[in-house]
Amino acid sequence: MKLIPPMLLALASVAVAASNDKLPPPATRPVDFEKEIKPLFEAACIKCHAKGKDKGGFSLETREAFLKGGDTGPGAVIGKSGDSNIVELVAGLDPDSIMPKKGSRWTPEQIGLLRAWIDQGASWPKDITFAKPAPLNLNPREVAVTDRPNLQPIDNLLATYFAAKGVTFPSPVEDRVFARRAYLDLIGLLPSPEQLDAFLADPSADKRAQLVRRLLDDKRGYADHWLTFWNDLLRNDYKGTGFIDGGRKQISGWLYRALLENMPYNRFVAELVNPTKASEGFSRGIIWRGNVNASMLPPMQAAQNISQVFLGVNLKCASCHDSFINDWSLADAYGMAAVYSDDKLELIHCDKPTGKTAAPRFLYPEIGELDPALPKAERLQKVAEIITSPKDGRLARTIVNRLWERMLGRGLVEPLDDMEKPAWNRDLLDWLAEDFVAHGYDVKHTLEVIATSHAYQAPTVEAPREKEEFIFRGPQTRRLDAEQFADAITALADDWGRLPSSMEFDFTAGDLVAGLKTPQWIWTDEPVQVGPQRVAIKTAKAALDGAKKAASAVLKSADTATQNGTLTDEMKAEVERTLATVTAGQAQLAEAEKPRAASAGPILPETDRHRVVFRKVFHLDAVPVEAYAAILASQSWQVQVNGREVKAKQRDGFRNGRIALLDIRPMLVAGDNAIVIDVSSHTEKQMNDIERGKYPGSLIHLNPQSGLAFYARLVPTAGGAAQEITTDETWHVRRSPEGRWGAVDFAEGEWTTAKALPANVTPIDEGPSLEPIHRDDFANLPVQLGSQLTPVISTVAQPGHIRASLLASDPLQVALDRPNREVVIPARSTAATTLQALELTNGATLDARLHKAAARFAPEAASDVTAWTDRIYRYAFSRPPSPTEREIAAEMLGRTPTTDNIADFLWAIVNLPEFQLIN
Amino acid sequence: MPYRPHSRRDFLKTASAATLGALAAGAPRLFAEPEEKITPTADCVIVLWMAGGMAHTETFDPKRYAPFEKGMESKAVLSTFPSIPTAVDGVKFSEGLEQMASVMDRGTLIRTAMAEDLGFILHSRHQFNWHTGYVPPQSVAAPHLGAFIAKALGPRDPAVPPFINIGQRFDLGEGEELKAFTTAGFLGSEFGPFNIPFPHDAARAVRPPAGMTPDRFENRDRFYRRLLDASPIGQVGSQYQRESFLRSMDNAHRLLSSPAAKAFDLTLEPPASLAKYVPAGFDATKIDSAKQNRDGDYEAATVGRFGLGCLLARRLAESGARYIEVTTEYIPFLNWDTHENGHTRLVNMKKMIDAPIAQLIRDLEERGLLDRTLVVLASEFSRDMMIEGKEGVQVRAQSRVPDRIEELKYYGMHRHFTEAGSVLLWGGGMKRGYVHGATADERPCKTLRDPVSITDLHASIYRAVGVSPKLSYTIEERPFYVTKDGKGRPVMPLFART
Fold first, then answer.
1. Is residue B8 predicted with pLDDT exceeding 60?
2. How much is the ipTM here?
């Protein structure tokens, strides 16, 4: 409804004639919409006023919308072009609102055409619209592959493609090249000379397919390698921003298990979209303290990341404003963000509130409607269902495209995160996606199909130059990523890590480790509050609080009534009743708080600093070759073995490190050994800080009781049966005297036996990531840490090598472009840079590794230089050296090579492009 | 549909054609603005980073001296040092900065640098904001100022890494947060920082690994090249990758064996000159052991370390570095991060920076480099006695300030303050002896006029090196600008010639 004062109306009507004078005259011939007007609209208008966008409320997607107009009135008046809004705007009558806002202005001729078209009735065929086109690569599509029955489908489709492009189908590379490629691509490691030889000697016709299957069946090799890919994509890391104050959670434990068990991809995605405690770190985003742009609030991060990773949709522009680079609008991004929002979410346009509330909406309503009224939990469940439903053909296409890129160096669609772009071979993309779904969303299946194709086995080719049309001719050469390089060097040095950088990896997954003896939580001999009692106390407290509130409200109104002289008997009764409820509540709380299952033995007086010592003595016939231990304690702890302090090798990310991994081997002796563990609550300084309120709500440990779980695994000889030492009721415990505590020679009588946590207490599954522990949660800590027990002891027990993907980054890997995973990384840079070369040339990390390798190789190299050189060549390049190379190596190494010679030779080898490239 | 009157449009219909024509000529049009051509006034940038929040009232914008008295009201605390004159009439610094005061006639002082309002808590967030121009988190990895400059201008000398970062370790408190912005981000590691945490050890960064003699190093390289020639390289890998590989190895080798490598070696500096940067008796080897001592010894032990950083910066500027940053080092609750003992600790912080910065300016001038080298001193925010962040805002977890001060440790600037801050600029086309903006003389000493945002300060730095604030790089098909959303505007009054 327009409200124009009569005065102005009069002025306006006078003005029409005048304005007409200033407008270019209409063309005098018949105007054709499709040929003459449509191109004008396309060039000037549709970016802001079509394809779902309606700046200023104006859309010209259809004739109706065009005529209806926007905030400033109808778009055009049929037959009266001189009075038409659009004509005035493109003519620039008002210098402050000229259209188009960007780009060149319309010429008088163009305006004349538009006028004539309006004057002639603005005819516009119904089938022409500027509506958003149906999204590409969205609906599932079956591809029939029938032409060449002897070829597998990928090759079959490519044969058609090659024929059309006039490209000869390339012949496969030789066995050694294939082996190196398959090992690196599927498990991320170089084949050892022995593995290579066995493969080369294998006479079977399908040995390549067998090798692919064997590598994919190597659960651990596969999981270790693909962990890098997923960590980048799900921006999961063991260190980084946000961890400092609980604003970020790892999903390492969940992810590693999913890879070890080859979780079907639809379930994998569903668990990330509608997460459990263990997998919520992805959609929770990274939260830094302080103010954050509206476009990076956690629900928007979830919308961006889920759309990018699983659907290949870039919502980052649309998080601030309607996107300029694609058709996504601010409303689309907010619709998706609202799915993850606990509260109502207001649309913010470039940090300016709009007053509009976003309704939860899935990006592609055409594949699944979301009821905006659903509560969050059900909303997430519904979104997980929609995104993984068979109707969503985008999910499968996005992941198979990523896998194709990993294996062949370039996606079927590029960029990988823009799945609205057409594939260079649509049939191939769609077939791979359908096949993936038909095989139960099995990632390994698709990798197998790709790796056994002739296409994958073709010789590598150059990437196309910029602006050159891409024609597929074979895989592109790729570079070892930072983790592959680090692993290759570590393998040379045989200097594998024993402990990962996260405490969450559960090696019982995929049955890597089995039959572990589980330690018991042991306690002081003092009464403990365990789970059920805590719950009872909490419930009683809440009931009491409610009763008190109700009573005080009743009392207040009674007071008022008394003052006004209107107090009634009913009111008095009500007061009595509520007070009685309070009394009952108090009694209930007192009952709940009564110590339960108080054990025999002295109950020590409460002090402000509680410290107890646990002790276990055991006998060893000999010092073991390996002795790692895990400790989980209710608060600060210190471990001494035979009177010597043991420092943690790894701790969890929180203050005081309540979970840690230790190497106790250096302290062990043949004969009697004593492990003594001091577990103490807050220090005096912490106590003072708490008094001063310095750390309100922070992670200070205030538990008056102390508890412990401990597991050690002693391996007597390499490969021998391990001895496990675990906490149980055979351990001793005592209150620690102030000062010295670590000696094992406290008088025997001062010790009492430890109490194990009652068996009927079920650990609450808090998921692998630790929440910050707040004061009032503390008594339950061992119960909360329960789910962490298995991963930690499985880490102590795991027999294999810890690969770079399970370790935090180091300067060498940073130089080789291992990203810090603050954002989703779909593909890494592969450029060789000077800074990289400097690190490779001078860096301490590589230098130390190579020297270790050299020391290890020295005897072997000294006994037969030629044989050793051959072995290194076969290991590094999957081929023997040429006679020339052998000569140079011999010259470089000398007759009896020193470790320096060997280190320098290895340095040269690993810096050769042939080593660093996957050919 | 929101109602919008169009009286203006209707009214314009009555205007004469001439009036319309005149209006149209001056009409704002949002054409894609062509990137302006800027003549650079600097080839090299040195940022001296006062990590942890440097109080302007205790350094370059002193106010009335409020000496310590037992039992004084906390809110009565203003400057805790007397002021001293500088080489520029009417401009005063805080006591302890005498040498820097003597080179103020060569510099420009911005008194009204405004940190953004980010909720004030985490230092590293504000440092991220200052160094990238963007507020974390970002949906793409935002590049550091040094990386942007390295990318836009390339190295000055092909043998010297274009972005060198001196004095910061990343394995201490908030180290991960520091890493998040000390990076080239999406520009790629080629433009990333060459990190030298310990300047006394800088030579090691460009020297072959320990234990490697020059002969052996040359020998290794010679054999490497022979093996390279012998390998069936023609059959392996794409030509582009091979070439970039070999070029990078050549570049690295060139730096290691180039004269520029000598710039990193501080032992080559004449003792007399070295002495101007570090106090007598300074022992670089003690730094490591001092590590994270929070009792103030750390600062004492590192006084000379920042001085060595300044000296290294000068040597690198002479040898063709493009962007150099020297930090006092950020460690939570240390250095400029004074949540307690502000007054006593600042005595030491001033010792850390005063002589070396003044000497850096003198040396650059003496060598004729100051005109083309822009030196910038800045910090993530300032400090106040009472206010955390902005006036009238309540912030969680601020440091405790008693109503009355009974102990010296409460005397000083202990809360983060974002409503004013000092930035110093020397050389690189900036005015000499100029002061920009003014702040209030009483607490809170906030900006009164001419505020300078980080975005505009960056635009000024970019302008000095000839880069438009609207320069952008494409990531995920969208533009990412060197100043926030391309909106930075250089502060033209800072420039000597415009």
1. no
2. 0.84
